[in-house]
Structures are given as C-alpha cells and as structure tokens.
Amino acid sequence: MEQCLGNCVTCLKANFSLFKGLSDEDLAIVNNGRTKLFFDKGDFLYKEGVTPNGLLCLTEGKVKLSRTGKIENEFIVGLHKPVDFIGFDDLMGNRNYSSSAIAIEPVALCLIKKEHLFKVIKKNPEFAFKIIQELSEQVESFKERLLNLTQKQIEERLAFALNELIEFFGFEKDGKTLAIQIKRREIAAISNMNTANVIRTLSKFKKDKIIDTEKKSILILDRNKLTRLL
User: Fold this and answer.
1) How far is CA 223 from the centre of its chain?
2) How many domains would you assign to the chain?
3) Residue 4 domain flag
4) Spatial separation of the C-alpha atoms in residues 99 and 83, rounded to whole Å
5) Which pLDDT score, from 0 to 100, does residue 73 have?
6) Parent domain of 34
7) Res. 6 pLDDT band, cuts 50 70 90
8) Domain end: 138, 173, 208, which one?
9) Buried-state track 94-129, b at ≥16 Cβ within 10 A, e below 16
C-alpha cells in the first residue's frame, strides 16, 4: 500500500480532490485536524446511524456504502475509490450516517476533523461554492443511479450493475475477467434485485454469450451487447 506523504500541504492527492487550489495556509488548517487511518478488508469505516466527526478522504483501496432494508437485505448505494470523500453529504447535512461504509479491500484514508474543515469553509467563499457544487453532483449522480435501478427491467438492471462494476474495478490482464470476485448476493445488492433473479439473469446472459462465469469470477464476452441493454 502506498504510504501517506506526510501532510495535506505536500500530498499530491490534494491536486486531484476538492482541496485543489487551496492555499498552503488553508491546507495547513486542514492538515492540523487530520488523522491517518487504516482498515482491513471487511472492516467498517463507520456504521449507519453513527454521527460523523469529520470528513473521510479515501487515499488507498475501495469502499462500498451499504444500507440494510427492513427485512435485513443489503442494498449497496455507492462505491468509492481514491480520491473520493466518503459520507460527505451526511457530514455537510449535519445528520447521522445514512449508510455503512465497508472496506472492499485494504483501505487507507485521512479523517479531517469537521471543526477544521468548517473553519476553511467559513473563511473561503470559493471553497464553500466548490462544496455546494460537489454536493449537487453527488445528488444528481444518486438520482440517476436510483432511476436506473428502479425504473428499468430486470435485464437492464443487471446490465447496469455489471457496467458499473466494469467502470469501478476494471478487468484483469486478459481484458475480459472482472477484477473482482463477487458473490451473487452482492450483485443483487448492487442491482436492486433478489439473488434468485440475479442467478437466472446471469444464466440468460451466459446463454446469449454476453458473459461467462467461473465460480465467483465474471467474464465479459461481448460488452457491446451488454451496453445495448442499458
């Protein structure tokens, strides 16, 4: 795992994040409230219902945001990779976390205390405007994803979920195998389907030579066909 470069002023990742363009003075304020945290695969970064105490900046690894339904079924509401901010909307909305954040693989992140973040927001109107823009983009992205997973037919939902996995994880060196081994119930949690429907639809995609499966691995044989289902 890549090591942290020491502070937010010198961290190259700041150039690819919301902090890009902040002065060294403002970055120093952020850095003074920063703690580096590490998590193993399967660890909770935080749990649904807990009060945020700062901004989480993901620097290494991948994270899923998960909500539990009334019948204890999991629904994955988001996937994050560097350099995303996790739980950002809940922090800025001054409310408890609306989902749980779970490490998909070993994770490193920076926790920036909210008092330090809010100090920079109050003294920097341009940064405050960037915060508003970021929140607006997140809301629009969530609305589009929700529409895809509630208004589409089952095959379209699964195609959307597989395409989302391709964009997020990419492929192995063969250019066909998804670079993640994923259980059928996890695909169901991403696609807003039940596990039985996922299994049946994967079998149909396999019969149509769109995909192939090897245990937990999924091979994309014809991405054009998959894309046409969206």
Assistant:
1) 23
2) 2
3) no
4) 19
5) 77
6) 12-138
7) low
8) 138
9) eeebebbbbbbeebbbbbbbbebbebbbeebeebee
Length of the chain: 230
Residue 202: the pLDDT is 97
Q: Which residues pair with 217 in a beta bridge?
A: 214
Predicted local confidence at residue 2, as pLDDT = 42
Beta strands in 25-113 (DSSP E): 34-39, 44-46, 54-60, 63-68, 74-80, 85-86, 100-103, 107-113
**pLDDT at 9 exceeding the cut of 70:** no
Q: Is the pLDDT of residue 112 over 90?
A: yes
Residue found under tokens 């660890």: 43
Are residues 182 and 111 both part of a single domain? no
- How many alpha carbons fall within 13 Å on the CB side of residue 210? 18
Distances in whole angstroms, Cα of residue 229 to Cα of each of 100, 189, 224: 31, 19, 9
- Segment 162-217, tens digit of pLDDT: 999 999 999 999 999 999 999 999 999 999 899 999 999 999 999 999 999 998 89
pTM for this prediction: 0.86
Helices (H), the chain: 24-32, 88-92, 114-123, 125-150, 154-169, 184-191, 195-207, 223-228
Both structure tokens of 16: 């690819």
